[in-house]
Structures are given as C-alpha cells and as structure tokens.
# Entry
Amino acid sequence: MILIRSLLLITFFVLSGLFYSQTNVTMTLPVVTLMDIEPTGSFSLNFTAPTEAGNAIGNPTPNTSKWINYTSAIAPGGLTRRITASVNKVIAGVNIRVQAAAATGAGGGTLGTSAGIISLSTTATTIISGIGGAYTGNGLSNGHLLTVSLTTNTYANLVAQANTAVVITYTITE
# Structure
C-alpha cells in the first residue's frame, strides 16, 4: 500500500511538472513621445485681388492637405501631452489660423482633443490637448486633419507682399 501510494505521488509530481510550469518575464515599456506632419513639404495660400473697385481682397481657400500623427506612452503618474503650434513671424493685417480636427483613422488609446480654430502667433499655443497613451496611425487619413487658413484682420495694416514664407512649428510636450 505504501509502495502504491509512493508511486502515485511520484507520478503526480512528474506529471504536474509537465502540465504546470512557470517562467519569469521581465518587460520594458519605454516613455514615447513622437509626432510628425504627413505628408512632408510646403503649400501655398494666396489672397485674390478683387476685380471691382471697392471690393475686399479674397481670402485663400483653406489648406487641408496635412495630418498630425503621434505616438505617446507616458510615465506612471505622468501628465497628458499636448501639441502646440506657432509661426516664425506674423504678417501685419493677416490672421494665420490652424484647426486640428478630431482624431480619425487606425489609432487607439487616449487620443487628444482639438482646441478649435486658433490664430497663430510667435508664441506657442495649444491646438490639441489631453493626449495619453495613444497612437494615431501613420500617414494620410490617420490622426488629426489640419486646416490652415488666412484671413485679413485690419485692412489699414495690409502691405502687398510676394512669396512671403511663414514657418508653422508644431511641438508635442507635457
């Protein structure tokens, strides 16, 4: 009887080793903060001269060719991220505006929220806030569609200009 019990106990331990096993796994999830504008390259916005005396200058058609893509993994207890925009110079009499649409596409996680239409200046202004652990997907039709527009604000300040380059800088930060 003791022999049978001992054989059963040994068999149980041998078989349990075949059915149950443990392994320790060490993992690392890095803090990630990546953002880019897709597609790369520049675009032009041109005011239209009126064809009749007394009419206002025509505002350019807004540009909707650019997308903001980002990936974010925040530190434990870390703050949500935001994306700001600024210009390298302002143009007298002209508002340079940007609006980030709601996130769309192949992404997931805690995607950011648009601040609506923002008039840009040389001081960085938040255009998207509340970005947590998230990714937008890469390329066109993923992330936040950007609408960049120009409008006149004070006609008295307008001065004719040709091929004036303005750089919009986007930054992701906590």
Observations:
- The first helix runs from residue 2 to 19.
- The chain has one helix and eleven strands.
- The first strand starts at residue 32 and ends at 38.
